[in-house]
């Protein structure tokens, strides 16, 4: 396994996905499509953050979000990068909070149960916090 290489991991993400052309140019989050699932992935100094993940309503229930998550985990494993996920429900169209946390848990993520503003999950281990 390579050493922690966030740059290589994000390059793999960019190569395997396509930009969401429907997003406005001034959008805060930059969605990218992986099949019928779109997600926002951001690079931090020592880890990647999966900010959002959602499947096209016409393709839900087919495992495509799980396929994307497994692909991201493999990329992070390859480059020695921790994947952090924000498990926040933004609308009522997808999974509710408990179902989203259970989905991450089924994929090997550790759930941070401490009281906080945004539920977070980590795979395979929690990133170091620099104080």
Q: What can you see in these coordinates?
A:
This protein has 131 residues and is α+β, with helices and mostly antiparallel strands. Helix content is 28%, strand content 24%. It has 3 helices and 7 strands; from the N terminus they run H-E-E-E-E-H-E-H-E-E. It has helices at residues 6-16, 64-79, 97-106, and strands at 18-19, 32-34, 37-43, 47-55, 82-86, 110-111, 120-123. The protein has a 7-stranded mixed sheet with strand order 1-2-3-4-5-7-6. The longest helix is centred in the middle third of the chain and has 16 residues, at 64-79. The model has no long low-confidence stretch (mean pLDDT 83).
Short synopsis of the structure:
This protein is of the alpha+beta class. Helix content is 28%, strand content 24%.
Q: Structural class of the helices, strands and pairings?
A: alpha+beta
Order of helices and strands: HEEEEHEHEE
Most strands sheet: 7 strands, mixed
Q: Report the helical percentage.
A: 25-40%
State the distance separating the first and last CA atoms: 28 Å
Mean pLDDT over the full residue set? 83
Please give the count of helices: 3
Spatial shape: globular
Placed side by side, the strands forming the largest sheet appear as 1-2-3-4-5-7-6
Number of strands: 7
What's the gyration radius in Å? 14 Å
Ranges with pLDDT <50 over ≥5 residues?
A: none
